[in-house]
Amino acid sequence: MSENKTGVLGGFKEFLMRGNVIELAVAVVVGAAFTNIVNAVVKGVINPIIGAFGTQNLDQYSTCLTTCVKKGGEYTDGVYILWGSVISAAITFLITAGVVYFLMILPMNKWKARQDAKKPVDDTPLEATEVELLTEIRDALIAQRNGSAAEHIAPQKTHTSTSTSQNSQSSQN
Fold this sequence. Notes:
Layout: H1 2-17, H2 19-51, E1 63-64, E2 69-71, E3 74-77, E4 80-81, H3 83-118, H4 130-146, H5 149-172
Antiparallel strand pairs: 1-4, 2-3
């Protein structure tokens, strides 16, 4: 029973120590912290620039699909599409994605490419293809049956080429 627990705990530890899990955890933490910065940039810089053409609060941009009634500064009746908040969220997403790509992903990819270039080239031969393996098996079977595969295959090739040249000569006559 203790071996099973050690195996399970060992497997869990191995899972946690994989590079992908750790990278994902770091990405989530950095992304959560970075969200506040992006939201501040959108509210403090982007919204005022857009506000030069309208209102600074993008959440106020909306469209009413049915008869809308405004009581005390708020809409009480009707169906609203709040497209301003969608634009604000899209801007926040684009800024976040751009910063993550250009400041995190791109440098990491360049670093990995440099690390891969420093690794020695693997000179091990490639695995044989299925056709090559079948050819080797055929040659081994022929060698078992007739003695030497080289003696048997070479005459076949020359015999085929000789008979082909004889056929072409006879067809010309």
